[in-house]
Write a structure and sequence with these properties.
The structure holds 2 protein chains of 2 kinds. Chain A is of the alpha/beta class. Chain A has a domain of 257 residues: Aspartate Aminotransferase, domain 2, CATH 3.40.640.10. Chain A is 34% helix and 9% strand. In chain A, strands 1-7-6-5-4-2-3 form a 7-stranded mixed beta sheet, with helices on both faces. Chain A has a 3-stranded antiparallel beta sheet with strand order 10-12-11, covered by helices on one side. A two-stranded antiparallel ribbon of chain A has the order 8-9. In chain A, strand 2, helix 8 and strand 3 form a beta-alpha-beta unit. The two termini of chain A are 16 Å apart. Chain B is an alpha+beta fold. Chain B has a single domain, classed as OB fold (Dihydrolipoamide Acetyltransferase, E2P) (Beta Barrel), CATH 2.40.50.100. Chain B has 5 helices and 9 strands; from the N terminus they run E-E-E-H-E-E-E-E-E-H-H-E-H-H. In chain B, the strands form 2 sheets. A 6-stranded antiparallel beta sheet of chain B has the order 1-2-3-9-8-5. Chain B has a 3-stranded antiparallel beta sheet with strand order 4-6-7. The longest helix of chain B is centred in the last third of the chain and has 9 residues. The model of chain B has no long low-confidence stretch (mean pLDDT 95). The chains are: A alpha/beta, B alpha+beta. The interface between A and B is small, with 7 and 10 residues.
Chain lengths: 511, 126
């Protein structure tokens, strides 16, 4: 860390750890007197398992504890407070009406083991969501059980395996373009299949010749993301579907980028047989760092009988039920109904917007991305030609100044913008996804910032190399942190008086 | 960027150097530079068999994780134990001290099928 010349703690300096704020005897809670007999640990725990010295836990008063966590909370970077170009890929803006819907006591007070006739409202909502997702996909039926995108991929591949099995076949290979999300080959492996990469053309689309060469009678499916991870719609998708179907295989769509095509193109119409949604992304529910998510899977007619049990169905009398009687089903993939909190929010989002509104989401998301791309022309290199879908890639062409994509990303932090995805799916790139909800003023401010940084890179490259300068934590030693991680906090050595004017010992910031 | 002429290369940037009846495998300077600072190298166990065109290990940098692919099939006879404690060797001396494994190969013809230094140099230039 850089030292502060005035030795005055910066207001935005990292707050001390709870351990550093500890005062012997301080306590944040007053426990009532025990109303059961107390026992000494030594009388019930074997001596060799007892610590000789109690662990040095922090002792801290209630107000100091509240301030500590409130200060930390204020440091959160969120889409509610700041723009970020990570887009729906990470999490787009979540309308607050979704929260109100999900917090209704009629939903929050349900017990997952209540009888079907007691939870008609919830089952009706979930069934309507299934129907809406099937319509958006252009496919026949949907399961809401998978709890995340990758879980949806696994479920989808299990459905595909079940379909091949029903035809007396076991196929071992799954094709995926070399731009695929890493979860695609991982899901193949989890499902006992081999992932085979398919080359991309210089224009970022699937190389059909390579596909024709690799598809064979052992191919169970091709997994494709369209628009792909570089934000490019593969206009040869119908040819891809024909080649894949011609070999007796199925086409799987990774729905991570559905934000670009809602109401504009339906995967079922362009040849997809099975797909998953990331409803926590596309249909706007708050999530982060592992959840909660939901990855519903949609299937073409002919594959419905393999969907997980229980399946939510509408009976002829208009009531809803959990159908367990599905002999060809792959079985349960998630407890109870899936991630209902996420699904209620997705329902609220879809119901609030309606068909025209959803189409408007995608059109505005695509327009925003192409607008920012146009503003950046001449300042950055573009690995692929537009027009783009909801996201695009730029490459800082600044190597003559020793400036890398990492430096540009770090410098953005100084301007209050979270860095975008970096170095993927092509080397040295930054991936920009502004989403549909940003105003023109915000998009301009972002483009102006990137252009400013590109100019700075040419005139004052040191500003980028040392960025961020205006953040609580400045440039970290990422190499040192990865090669020699220090994962345990240790109390600083007591300082002697003569050292009083030196800077305080560096604090350890580790994940 | 130097590409030693005494060895053969894969399109996935591994070099293969035959010597004393074994083939030594490592990654090229180009690959090391693209990966940036290497933080971890996972190698197979001695005695393990490896296949041409298939991964034999993994490499991690601050930027990416990737497979280490073999251009030859055979049995692992030696591994470079130094890389566990000093993965930075891959950045500083990829063609020398950062060799990864030594393999007794099944079919010498596989080695001839790999890229020459000249072909590899042309590939990374293009």
């Amino acid at each position: 860390m850089t030292s502060n010349p005035d030795r005055i703690p910066r207001p935005d300096a990292p707050p001390p750890l709870l351990f550093e704020q500890s005062h012997p005897g301080a306590c944040a809670v007053s426990l009532p007197a025990a109303d059961v007999p107390t026992v000494k640990p030594a009388s019930v725990i074997p001596a060799d398992l007892l610590a000789a010295v109690p662990p040095p836990l922090p002792e801290i008063g209630e107000l100091d504890l509240v301030r500590h966590f409130t200060r930390l909370a204020h440091r959160l970077f969120s889409v509610d407070a700041n723009f970020y170009p990570l887009g729906s890929c990470t999490m787009k803006y979540n309308p607050k009406i979704n929260e109100r819907a999900a917090a209704m006591p009629g939903f929050t007070n349900l017990h997952p083991l209540q009888a079907d006739e007691d939870v008609q409202g919830m089952l009706g909502l979930l069934h309507t969501l299934q129907t809406a997702l099937a319509e958006i996909a252009g496919l026949a039926d949907v399961t809401l059980q998978p709890a995340a995108g990758a879980h949806g991929e696994m479920t989808g591949l299990m459905l595909i395996n079940a379909w091949h099995r029903s035809r007396g076949e076991t196929r071992t290979k799954v094709l995926a373009p070399d731009t695929a999300h890493g979860t695609n080959p991982a899901s193949c492996t989890v499902c006992g299949r081999h992932a085979i990469p398919i080359k991309s053309l210089p224009n970022g689309r699937v190389d059909l010749d390579d596909l024709r060469k690799r598809v064979d009678e052992q191919t169970a499916a091709m997994m494709i993301t369209n628009p792909n991870t570089a934000g490019l719609f593969d206009s040869h998708i119908a040819d891809i579907a024909e080649i894949v179907h011609g070999a007796g295989a199925l086409l799987y769509l990774d729905g991570a980028n559905m934000n670009a095509i809602l109401g504009v193109a339906r995967p079922g119409d362009f040849g997809v047989d099975v797909m998953h949604y990331n409803v926590h992304k596309t249909f706007s529910t708050p999530h982060g760092c592992g959840g909660p998510g939901a990855g519903p899977v949609a299937v073409r007619a002919g594959l419905e009988r393999f969907l997980p049990t229980p399946h939510i169905v509408r009976r002829d009398d208009g009531t809803y039920a959990l159908d367990h009687d599905r002999p060809d089903s792959i079985g349960k993939v998630r407890s109870f109904y899936g991630q209902t909190g996420v699904l209620i929010r997705a329902y609220a989002y879809i119901a609030a917007l309606g068909p025209e509104g959803l189409r408007d989401v995608s059109e505005k998301a695509v327009l925003a991305a192409n607008y920012v791309a146009a503003r950046l022309k001449g300042h950055f290199a573009f690995p692929f030609e537009g027009p783009y879908a909801h996201e695009f890639l730029i490459v800082p062409q600044l190597t003559q100044h020793g400036v890398t994509e990492l430096d540009v990303a770090k410098r953005l932090i100084d301007f209050g913008i979270h860095p975008p995805t970096m170095s993927w799916p092509v080397a040295h790139c930054l991936m920009i996804e502004p989403t549909e909800t940003e105003s023109l003023a915000t998009l301009d401010a972002f483009a102006n910032t990137l252009i400013h940084i590109a100019n700075e890179a040419a005139t004052q490259p040191d500003r980028l190399h040392s960025a961020p300068q205006h953040a609580p934590v400045t440039r970290l030693d990422e190499v040192g942190a990865a090669r020699k991680p220090e994962l345990r906090w240790r109390a600083a050595e007591p300082q002697d008086k003569s050292a009083g004017q030196q800077e305080p010992p560096p604090r350890i910031h580790k994940a | 960027m130097p590409v030693p002429a005494d060895r053969r290369y894969t399109k996935t940037h591994e070099w293969h150097l035959p010597a004393d009846g074994l083939v030594t495998i490592g990654i090229t300077q180009f690959a090391a530079d693209e990966l940036t600072d290497i933080t971890y190298v996972e190698l197979p166990k001695i005695g393990q068999t490896i296949q041409a065109g298939a991964p034999f290990g993994e490499i991690e940098s601050v930027k990416a994780t990737g497979d280490l692919n073999s251009g030859v099939s055979g049995t692992v006879k030696e591994i470079n134990e130094n890389l566990a404690g000093a993965p930075e060797l891959v950045n500083s001396d990829p063609f020398g001290a950062a060799w990864m494994i030594k393999v007794a190969i099944d079919n010498p013809a596989e080695l001839d099928a790999l890229l020459s230094a000249e072909d590899y140099e042309r590939m990374i230039a293009g």
